[in-house]
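Bumping with the actual sequence this time:
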Amino acid sequence: MNQMERLYLDDLRVGQRFTSGSYVMEAARIKEFAAEFDPQPFHLDEAAAEASVFKGLAASGGHAAPRYRWSVICERHRWLGRRNGVA
């Protein structure tokens, strides 16, 4: 990537929106990850999760953040391609 292709914070505008693809966080994987790395009841037990502020099973931030970051990286590559005339 050359200097002209970099996107900096100064390049963003208030209210600007970005879209990304979707990723399904499956309950079994949420529980598997949580059991090893973040054993909170709202990550492991659906009944406890329903009674929590989340009102349902919630993926750990440690599980969800890398998937979010990957979607940002993928969208950035698509944006750069469009900006440079590549479909």
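The tokens above came from a reply further down the thread. The two ends are 17 Å apart (CA to CA).
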